[in-house]
Amino acid sequence: MSPALYARHARSRIVDDLDAAIERDPAATSRADVLLNSPGLHAIWAYRLAHRLWLRGGLAKPVARVLMTVVRSITGVEIHPGAVIGARFFIDHGMGVVIGETAEVGDDVMLYHGVTLGGRSLQRVKRHPTVGSRVTIGAGARILGPVYVGDDVQIGANSVVVKDVPSGAIATGIPATIRFPQGREDPYEAMFKDPALWI
Q1: Phi/psi of residue 161, each to 5°?
Q2: Pairing of β 170-172 and β 177-179
Q3: Which domains, and CATH codes, for the chain?
Q4: Which of 26, 80, 91, 93 has a CA-to-CA distance to 36 between 20 and 30 Å?
């Protein structure tokens, strides 16, 4: 990709991220507000740079790690540069989020503070979750191990997920139990019917 084309692509992605943040954060008043005051977005943008370095390999990998260590100290968000994260990803508040090296995250995913996409193995294998698209993960939730979380899933605050969650499901509790919205119930509206999604 040429430098000019990459710059256009980067600008477009930044605007997409800003608009996704405004759509998901009722406290956001403008692109400028989010640009200046969203540590979650600052961490995501630093991750995107670090990920490009990580993919280059060689000496770029330790540089990527150091960059993300500095970002963690500033934002409270720890994202390994080896993780794969899709478009329009948003972390609300940010503090305490941890995303491991082999985690994969789809498009239009939202995480609240304190979420962990963590591992359960010390082996050098795929040890972190794969999260589909259009997933919302509540504050303090832990998704541990190489589990698969399908598209359009809602994971409740403080839930602990250690098994696969099928697309369209709602997962709450410790360990998380899975249910599906009744009929054509909107997943967002379903959260108001299940208080465990918020606590």
Answers
A1: -105, 120
A2: antiparallel
A3: 3-197 (2.160.10.10)
A4: 80
Q: What is the pTM of this model?
A: 0.86
Map tokens 């939202």 to a residue.
110
From CA 20, how far away is CA 146, in angstroms rounded?
Answer: 27
Over the stretch 26-39, which tens digit does the pLDDT of each residue have? 888 888 888 888 88
Comparing 186 with 96, which gets the higher pLDDT?
A: 96
